[in-house]
Structures are given as C-alpha cells and as structure tokens.
Design brief:
Elements (H helix, E strand, L loop, with lengths): L3 E5 L3 H15 L2 E5 L2 H11 L3 E5 L7 H9 L9 E5 L4 H8 L5 E4 L7 H15 L1
Parallel strand pairs: 1-2, 1-3, 3-4, 4-5
C-alpha cells in the first residue's frame, strides 16, 4: 500500500525529523508545508492519505487550518491528525469536538508514528 502524508508544522526541525522517521520506519511518501496557508495548497495538489497538523502556528493556526480543510470539497475527505504539545484535559476535550482522525502529543514516539498513521488510514477505509 502506497502511503502519503502531509506534515504541516512551522518548526523546520519537527518537519524534518518527522519526515525522516516516516520514510525510514514506514516507507511513506512525505510532503511538507511550513504554514497552514501553504499546507492547504500542498494538500490540494498532493492529495495525501493523511495530514499531520501542528496546532500552534503563527498567522494561521491549526484550528483555522483544520476548518479550511474541512470546508474545502477537494480535501475535506483527508483525515487530519493534530500533532501538538497542547495536551491539557480542557484542550483535549475541545479537540474531541473537531472531527479529527486522532490527536498525537509532542513529544511523540518516532518509532510508533508510522504504525499510528497507518491504523488511522485503515480505520477510515473500513468506514467507507
């Protein structure tokens, strides 16, 4: 199964580390974007199987980016996973209302990330 992921994160180190982990541990084809605005363009052109989206970004944060993804018919079918350091119970309750595929907290385990994303894609396939 060919697996494609888009990483949207303003931190270059996070993008690069996550990309390398996914390419090595899961043979993913990885696309990256450094902002929500760029991520929307890349998502439409690359049509990834899943989007890893940082919550805290300047200009357009993850919540705004998620709303734009969910309102765009070209990309609204792509499952979105928040990748965030915001893991307080109140924030997790807020995120649970957003129709996310999953929430992964930073720091994450790079050796299990590929399996987590694969499971999300398979769950989505079995729902349809």
């Amino acid at each position: 199964m060919s697996k494609r992921v888009l990483i949207i994160d303003d931190e270059q180190g996070i993008r690069e580390t996550t990309q390398v982990c996914l390419e090595i541990t899961g043979d993913w084809e990885v696309f990256t974007a450094s902002s929500g605005k760029e991520g929307l363009v890349v998502a439409a052109s690359s049509q990834p199987d899943v989007i890893l989206l940082d919550v805290m970004m300047p200009d357009m944060d993850g919540l705004t980016t998620l709303k734009k993804i969910q309102s765009n018919p070209e990309i609204q079918h792509i499952p979105v996973v928040f990748l965030t350091a915001k893991a307080q119970p109140a924030e997790q309750r807020q995120f649970s209302q957003l129709n996310l595929a999953a929430l992964i907290t930073k720091p994450y385990d790079p050796f299990t990330l590929s399996d987590q994303l694969t499971e999300i894609i398979l769950r989505r396939v079995h729902k349809t």
